[in-house]
């Protein structure tokens, strides 16, 4: 049964990719199941992503393209009361779903921000960690967005980028590395393979 579900999800992703591949379009709110499903949880589940991110209690996390909170919610529990998660998404309907979930779960350390990446509205030198999980390809101006993330991180802060095939906006590792290098990041770690990978980048310490 799980195999059939995964097969259907993959087919749906490929079909949607035909429409989205050459446009930087965010996943619509009514398609949120494309990122919240057994396949995504198997290859890029919250525990795996947050462990690779080295997220610890008391940290401040910027979750770009948070959607309905697949990662923001467990991250909020991990950073605890002394920490904070800023869930940033351009789609208000996605964030409405997140609000419902935070209220139902009694989570009060998630700050919701309804803007697009690269808008220039994030706090400067505030975050310890930043996440882009199957989101980079949806951003129209990737360079501007990565510069904003760079400025939003503290010195030594980490940006973690995860890409998963068959996401319609899958961005190849070579492209991810080039974009982050142009924004000033230094590569730290790489996990996975060509189909599903996570790569961590560090904002260098100021001289």
Q: Notable features of this structure?
A:
207 residues, alpha/beta, Rossmann fold, seven-stranded mixed beta sheet, 7 helices, 37% helix, globular
Written account of the structure:
The chain is an alpha/beta fold and 207 residues long. It has a single domain, classed as Vaccinia Virus protein VP39 (Rossmann fold). Helices cover 37% and strands 23% of the residues. The protein contains 7 helices and 7 strands. The protein has a 7-stranded mixed β-sheet, with helices on both faces. α4 links the parallel β1 and β2. It starts with a helix and ends in a 5-residue tail after the last strand. About 4% of the residues have low confidence.
Write the SSE topology.
Layout: H1 2-20, H2 38-44, H3 46-52, E1 60-64, H4 72-79, E2 84-88, H5 92-105, E3 110-113, E4 127-133, H6 142-152, E5 153-164, H7 173-183, E6 186-192, E7 196-202
Parallel strand pairs: 1-2, 1-4, 2-3, 4-5
Antiparallel strand pairs: 5-7, 6-7
Helix pairs in contact: 6-7
Short description:
The protein is built from 7 helices and 7 strands, in the order H-H-H-E-H-E-H-E-E-H-E-H-E-E.
**The CATH superfamily title:** Vaccinia Virus protein VP39
Q: Proportion of β residues? A: 15-25%
User: What is the CATH architecture term?
Assistant: 3-Layer(aba) Sandwich
Distance between the termini: 55 Å
Extract low-pLDDT stretches.
Answer: 17-24
* Secondary-structure element pattern, one letter each: HHHEHEHEEHEHEE
Based on helices, strands and strand pairing, what is the structural class?
A: alpha/beta
Count of individual helical segments:
7
Shape: globular
Extended strand count = 7
- Taking all Cα atoms into account, the compactness measure Rg is 16 Å
Q: Order of strands side by side in the largest beta sheet? A: 3-2-1-4-5-7-6
Give the tally of structural domains. Answer: 1
Helix proportion range: 25-40%
Mean pLDDT: 89
């Amino acid at each position: 049964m799980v195999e059939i579900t995964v097969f259907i999800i993959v087919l749906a992703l490929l079909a949607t990719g035909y429409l989205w591949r050459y446009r930087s379009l965010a996943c619509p709110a009514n398609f949120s199941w494309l990122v919240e499903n057994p396949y995504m949880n198997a290859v890029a589940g919250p525990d795996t992503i947050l462990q690779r991110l080295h997220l610890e209690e008391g940290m401040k996390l910027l979750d770009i393209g948070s959607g309905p909170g697949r990662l923001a919610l467990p991250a909020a529990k991990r950073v605890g009361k002394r920490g904070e998660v800023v869930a940033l998404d351009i789609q208000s309907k996605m964030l409405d779903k997140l609000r419902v979930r935070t209220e139902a779960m009694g989570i009060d350390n998630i700050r919701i921000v309804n803007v697009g990446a690269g808008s220039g509205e994030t706090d400067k030198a505030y975050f310890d960690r930043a996440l882009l999980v199957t989101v980079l390809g949806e951003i129209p101006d990737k360079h501007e967005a990565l510069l904003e993330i760079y400025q939003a991180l503290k010195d030594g802060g980490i940006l973690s980028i995860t890409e998963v095939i068959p996401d319609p906006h899958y961005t190849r590792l070579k492209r991810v590395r080039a974009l982050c290098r142009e924004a000033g990041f230094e590569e730290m770690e790489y996990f996975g393979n060509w189909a599903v990978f996570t790569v961590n980048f560090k904002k260098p310490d100021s001289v």
